Amino acid sequence: MALKIDLTDHVVLVTGGTRGVGAGIARTFLEAGAAVEICGRTAPGPAPAVPRFSQVDVRDEDQVRHWVDEVAGRHGRIDVVVNNAGGAPFTGFADASPRFHRRITDLNFLSAVFVAQAAYPVMSAQDAGGVVLNITSISARRPSPGTVVYGAAKAALESLTRSLAVEWAPRIRVNAVSSGLVETEGSADHYGGPEQVARVAATIPRGVFAKPADIGAACALLASPLAAHITGAILNVDGGGEWPAFLQHAPGTEKLPGTAP
């Protein structure tokens, strides 16, 4: 039986939707027929006709509430919120300032708190309720040296997901998509070139980075009626995670197909 995700007449908000993973998520929802609204701190060049862009600093609760209220007023509803905004530069924990740690926490955790809280009155008043999706990371559940506070913030976001799924049930479903490494416009620069990207990809069991569209597809699935009984879930989209380090040295493991070098 062929299944098609059709989100026509759904209004979807995506934070950080101007590039990378966020842009891939926004495109996926557009392809599913949804009306998509994205936000970011800077516009993606000339403002596109679709999705509609709003300039918002999601770390500012007043700006977030104004944006959500504006979207709800424009469309009369909000069906899906995707808390995608996030990220962190590689920085040693001891060398970073308290201000740096606070900003990373604000961007990767509190922004999702502000967006979800602002969307709640709209979603809870709708017959169909709504869906909140939080984009987390493999860093939430494994050591994250160099991005310590980022990993901790993503772990907090997963805890928020599970708790809100219970507190806001049954009208609002809350799930998370835990992303592994994703190939974006800046991957080659970040890892030091195509050759280094290939070496990093070899540490993933499937041997490749995810595409932004892979994260978008997971979001569309969780937002759709196909996932009507799924809430409080953390869906891993990471190609199998990472090869255990011992497999590089234990006798006999060289016979395993695809073992990372």
TrEMBL record:
GO molecular function, one term: oxidoreductase activity
Keywords, ordered alphabetically: Oxidoreductase
Domain of life from the UniProt record: Bacteria
Annotated SUPFAM superfamilies: NAD(P)-binding Rossmann-fold domains (SSF51735)
Family: Belongs to the short-chain dehydrogenases/reductases (SDR) family.
Gene3D superfamilies assigned: NAD(P)-binding Rossmann-like Domain
Pfam families listed in its UniProt record: adh_short_C2 (PF13561)
Protein name: NAD(P)-dependent dehydrogenase, short-chain alcohol dehydrogenase family
PANTHER family noted in UniProt: OXIDOREDUCTASE, SHORT-CHAIN DEHYDROGENASE/REDUCTASE FAMILY (AFU_ORTHOLOGUE AFUA_5G02870), SHORT-CHAIN DEHYDROGENASE_REDUCTASE FAMILY PROTEIN
Entry annotated with the keyword Oxidoreductase: yes
CDD domains from the UniProt entry: SDR_c
InterPro entries, per the entry: NAD(P)-bd_dom_sf (IPR036291), Sc_DH/Rdtase_CS (IPR020904), SDR_fam (IPR002347)
